[in-house]
Predict the structure.
Amino acid sequence: MNDRETYAPGPAAAAQVQKNGDRWTLVLVRELRHPPATVWAALTDPAQLAQWAPFDADRSLAVVGPVKLSTVGTPSPQVSETTVTRAEPPRLLEYSWGGNDLRWQLDPQRAGTRLSLWHNIDRRFIAWGAAGWQICFDVLDRLLGGAPIGRIVAGDALKLEGWQRLTAEYAQQFGAELPRW
């Protein structure tokens, strides 16, 4: 199933939420069949980010310092001027996006890399965040495997067969409500 037209997200993965009042942190872990250096490049190189991530970066994220991250697929681009606060290739990357902290950890495994993401998300949108990152990780895995299907974010993700099911599964898993529009 490498074709974009036939892609549908699987069931909700074993994500976790760390709750501290209204501040919730989404924790997602994905086993990838690729070495940490390859995964690191996909997390930091703007050309690779443009193929799977929900934002574009104006420079490599592999170096500490200021960076602009622009949302993709939204009615009007939202640009976050932020800072990469930690970049320890190929194992740890930290920065903010839209005022929320992201921490990426890459742990070498015998068969590849265990990729862990901690993302602070407004609790009202935690199920959407989990679903969105799951889809991004699926696209990333296909990209690294040499069978890219193209970025699926924002409105494209909302139109996917299985989006509503996936967000409902995460909402139930986390004990959260789905956003009401």
Notes: The chain has a mean pLDDT of 93. Residues 14-173 form a domain with the Alpha-D-Glucose-1,6-Bisphosphate; Chain A, domain 4 fold (CATH 3.30.530.20).
